[in-house]
Amino acid sequence: MASQLFIGLMSGTSLDGVDVALVTFNHLQHPQLLKTHFVAYSPTLRAQILALQHPTDNELETTALIGNTLARLYATAVNELLSAAKIDAKSVTAIGCHGQTIRHRPELGFTMQIGNAALLSELTGITVISDFRSRDIAAGGQGAPLVPAFHQDVFAHKKHNRAIINIGGIANITYLSSSGAIFGFDSGPGNMLLDAWIKQHLGLDYDADGQWSSTGRIIEPLLDAMLSEPYFSAPPPKSTGRDLFNDAWLNHWLTTQQYAPNDVARTLVALSALSIANAINQYCREIDEIYLCGGGAKNKLLASDLQSLMGQVRLESTDKLGMGVDWVEAIAFAWLAKKCLSQESANLPEVTGAKGLRILGAIYQA
Q: Is the pTM of this model over 0.70?
């Protein structure tokens, strides 16, 4: 390829906005981050996307129109990034665009991420690779998580057994054995439930540093009840999202008794930490190092809870490995775009449960 510049776009289940990463690849084909940008979702767009998580009136047309809106926002984010970096769009080989997940039902054989990749290519003049999950699901896999293959490429160590924990709306775990063995799965909710709860009660998008949650106490009976959710005890491969962990799921556990809102918030932090720790203890028996990334890595209360549960195993952020916590997933989708254009497989059957290795992504040529 004439150019080794790629752009990764990531908009996750937290629905805060779109992360954009401009990436190049060195002679070892490892990504090097050149420039980043973030564009927030407007409250209106966020509400529209949330509404699509469930059947709505005229949802086919609504989904298509919001997909177009997202494509325009993605294009704005890309163009602003390139302008700041003083790089012409013609120098970029491709954009890897995750899109916005509005349904994830691998048990029914489908997943849906919207964002109109064809329109994004038209608006930027750059080849776009999207729809990374569908091929793995077609091969019998979960289609998620996709990032463990990337984690293996950039974070694996020959002497240390590592766990990489991405805490976005959903938390996912990648276990990287020093022997080269790898597996990964979604452990359950990360920030998603807490974000919805603080929005409902304080009108905020998230609980910065866990400040509000810190004023509450853990409601042990509520925590135990929520941990009885069958997903937590189901064996990997598994993946999840808003189709399960949503407002209705939380309200189900809150119908029998009134709790102080900050106590519920504190309990939701404990739920995220404990579900992650339980999964690590069950499936990552020999572990030397844990690295956090994603927005939840910045929640000091969540990190503190998790550190207490993990005992002597020290938690650090992926910043320590040279990759900022906010940009790991966006960089991963630049990496996935490169894999697609190089005709290299990028799924891990041992993670997703697919029948074999597959090339991921649909290409919209500029």
A: yes
